[in-house]
Write a structure and sequence with these properties.
heterodimer; A: alpha/beta; Beta-Lactamase; Rossmann fold; Helicase, Ruva Protein, domain 3; 4 domains; five-stranded parallel beta sheet; 38% helix; B: alpha/beta; 3 helices; 6 strands
Chain lengths: 468, 121
């Protein structure tokens, strides 16, 4: 049954038509199942979406391979009957790249001439593209998952639609934690390839031999342990975008192979002399200085030229301090929702410290700090005591700026200006209280208002610090 | 000693970490013998609940099916080794994991149709 079902349609022409080849070219994911819901065929688009190849998937029950949420909450195939031959549902899948992708699934019966059920056919549409269309309004401050209001990041946002519409290679540089991967994904989503897969490979994460197989695939028997064919990330990214992160860590031998691919768009799997043409846009990202690596002979000059068609530099967070406040509020909202907390804001003192920090780990470090605070805080406001201890320790080490970054709301002039000559937080707090008391001409109520504290908080802190 | 957790669906590894109704926990000694094992029925299927359980139980290795990157990175950050996208029976996966022969994306399931008849694409 499966052979005639999957491979051939007879009668369109005098010769036989290969169904699998036709289905492979369809830009919607398609899976064909037998009557017991085992996979018989997966087309190329769905291979890219789920991250497993047709041969790997063959004979496996669909729920194990497709990992749909509706496999656990009422399989739509069970709703199908001769009267109700097709059902469309909204669901989500988790693919091999650990992405949760919202999909629209249409399931239909496959019947023979006598209306006997032969199996099922399902189509999978990636609806991320449609969802992102709905949120275009937010793009002034937000692009995909990237957020920023600083001129530097706004410039990147403005360039992005133009870059997305070209099909040239892109090189993204910037310090670790600045959002290079997010930017690459945003380029992919804004491009005409958005309906295709976005595949990410970390060139520094695997040893050279494994990386070659991971990128270009291998033939069964190519080396010990190659028990089945593997598609490789280039083929999985067909009609989509391939992001090569840590491109500076790519071994020289693979740099040659990548260069060859960029020239002729053909990949040669390990152990195979037959090339496969794939249509992939390559985006490379690194935190290294590739020009310096070229000078040292560790990176090929011709590959740099080939990748460097469009270059985007993401500024470190310390150079776009206007974004810190926006990012703090954004991550606070996200983390509060995720951990089901009721935390609404940062106290003015905590916010001042966070705004003054230089974030050597950039946005990633800021997000981790907010996550820590949300986990530690039990009330509805994050106070100084909820901040990670190392923030306090680092106040002495020159990792704080002399003045906090600007805040969203227009408050009175900042009372707390962190200077490096404060030995610790206690001393800084004492100084803050003194300055506020001087400004308030000795009135504790006014000093508390200047500091943004309640009167009782000020009284408690004064007592603790021994201020009479 | 390694302590392994496998999100379960029946006797197999649950296809999705966040939707697993049960979890199997095994304590393996230095002689690669399972010295303690138990299965826990989860009151609600959720990735957060499982992550909390993994940390509370001081699990050192998780063998699972599909897992969102956010939870994967969180567990790795917490020094838990995660072998994901594994398809097949939990006992076979644990056996391989103890020998150090289990890799992400392994398909350990017997195919219900002989693989040689797979269509060529």
């Amino acid at each position: 049954m499966s052979g005639s079902l999957v491979n051939e349609i007879v009668g369109i022409d005098s010769s036989r038509l290969s169904t699998s080849r036709v289905l492979d070219e369809v830009p919607i994911g398609i899976v064909i199942l037998d009557s017991k819901q085992n996979i018989l065929f997966v087309n190329r688009t769905l291979e890219s979406l789920i991250g497993f190849g047709c041969e790997e998937s063959y004979g496996i029950p669909c729920s194990y391979m497709l990992k749909c949420n509706h496999c656990f909450h009422g399989c739509p195939l069970k709703q199908l009957s001769l009267e109700n031959r097709s059902v469309t549902t909204e669901s989500n899948i988790i693919n091999r790249n650990r992405e949760k992708i919202p999909v629209r699934i249409t399931s239909s019966l496959l019947l023979d001439q006598d209306d006997e059920v032969l199996g099922f056919i399902e189509t999978f549409e990636d609806v991320r593209v449609l969802e992102s269309e709905c949120t275009k309004v937010e793009r002034v401050l937000k692009l995909d998952d990237m957020i920023g209001r600083s001129p530097q990041i706004q410039r990147v946002f403005q360039m992005l639609p133009v870059i997305a519409q070209t099909d040239s290679s892109v090189l993204i540089t910037g310090q670790t934690g600045t959002g290079k991967d997010l930017l690459a994904e945003a380029i992919h989503k804004a491009s005409v390839r958005a309906k295709g897969p976005f595949v990410k490979v970390n060139c520094g994460a695997l040893p050279e031999t494994l990386l070659e197989s991971e990128l270009f695939g291998h033939q069964k028997g190519a080396f010990t342990g190659a028990v089945e064919n593997r598609l490789g990330r280039f083929r999985l990214a067909h009609n989509g975008t391939l992001l090569l992160t840590e491109i500076g860590d790519l071994p020289l031998t693979l740099q040659v192979k990548l260069l060859s691919f960029l020239d002729d768009k053909v990949v040669y799997p390990l152990g195979s002399s037959k090339g496969v043409h794939v249509d992939v846009r390559v985006i490379a990202a690194t935190n290294r200085n590739l020009e310096e690596m070229v000078r040292q002979g560790r990176f090929r000059r011709d590959l740099l030229f080939r990748l460097n068609v469009i270059r985007l530099e993401l500024p470190p967070l310390c150079e776009r301090k206007e974004d810190i406040s926006t990012l703090l509020d954004h991550f606070l909202r996200i983390m509060s929702l995720r951990f089901k907390n009721r935390i609404k804001s940062f106290s003015p003192e905590a916010r001042d410290i966070l705004l003054s920090f230089r974030y050597p780990g950039n946005v990633r470090e800021l997000r981790n700090i907010v996550e820590y605070c949300v986990n530690v805080c039990e009330g509805d406001t994050i106070e100084v005591s909820h901040l990670p201890a190392y923030l306090m320790e680092k106040q002495d080490s020159g990792i704080f700026d002399s003045a906090p970054a600007s805040k969203d709301d227009d408050e009175s002039e900042p009372v707390a200006v962190f200077k490096l000559d404060y030995p610790n937080w206690r001393a800084a707090e004492k100084k803050m209280i003194f300055e506020a008391m001087i400004k308030a001409k000795g009135s504790r109520s006014k000093a508390a208002a200047i500091l943004g504290w309640g009167r009782s908080t000020l009284w408690r802190k004064m007592k603790r610090l021994g201020i009479e | 000693m390694i302590k392994i957790l496998v999100p379960l669906l029946g006797d197999d590894i649950a296809p999705r970490f966040d939707l697993a109704p049960e979890a199997y926990i095994a304590l393996v000694d230095d002689n690669q013998k399972i010295v303690e094992e138990r299965t826990i029925v989860l009151s609600e299927a959720s990735a957060e609940t499982l992550c909390r359980m993994i940390l509370d139980e001081r699990i050192t290795m998780v063998i699972c099916g599909g897992i969102e990157d956010e939870y994967y990175q969180y567990l790795v950050w917490k020094k838990v080794s995660v072998v994901d996208s594994v398809i097949g029976s939990s006992s076979k996966a644990i056996e391989l994991a103890i020998k150090g022969a289990l890799s992400p994306g392994s398909i350990l399931m017997e195919r219900s149709i002989p693989q040689k008849s797979a269509p060529s694409t």
